[in-house]
Amino acid sequence: MNKKLILLITFLAFAAGLAGGTAGSQLVLAKEFKIIKGQEFQLLDAQGNTRSTLSLTSKGYMFLAVHDNTGKITDSVVVTPELIKSSQKTANTLEKLHDMFNKK
Q1: Where are the alpha helices (DSSP H) in 1-80?
Q2: Which helix H or strand E contains 76, and what residues bound it?
Q3: Could you identify which of 6, 43, 62, 91 might form a hypothetical disulfide with 79, taking C-beta atoms 3.0 to 4.6 angstroms apart as the criterion?
Q4: pLDDT at residue 32, rounded to an integer
Q5: Which range in 32-41, 61-70, 94-103 is most confidently predicted, on average pLDDT?
Q6: What span is annotated as the signal peptide, if there is one (predicted)?
Q7: Per-residue confidence (pLDDT) for residue 98, from 0 to 100
Q8: Greatest distance between any 2 Cα atoms in the chain
Q9: In whole angstroms, what is the distance from residue 75 CA to residue 91 CA?
Q10: For 84-99, what is each residue's pLDDT tens digit?
């Protein structure tokens, strides 16, 4: 798999876990559901350096960037509906190949 696909899958897993954990905790605790809004979200390391950003492109697509320890973008991906469909097809194909080669 290429870097962008791995980055996309990692981000989608993170987002799903975050959404599920947030929604689950709200249901269990029966608290008011809070929404965090912003134009850009940054993940910082312990020293306060930006290591990842999440924002939107001018067309409204999600933009995810990974930064090095100096804050410079080292990799990025724009998540479009076409990219998601493509990654789902790739995942399905990989699963079929895995099943085919692991039959006993």
Answers
A1: 3-29
A2: strand 73-79
A3: 62
A4: 64
A5: 61-70
A6: 1-15
A7: 82
A8: 51
A9: 21
A10: 888 888 888 888 888 8
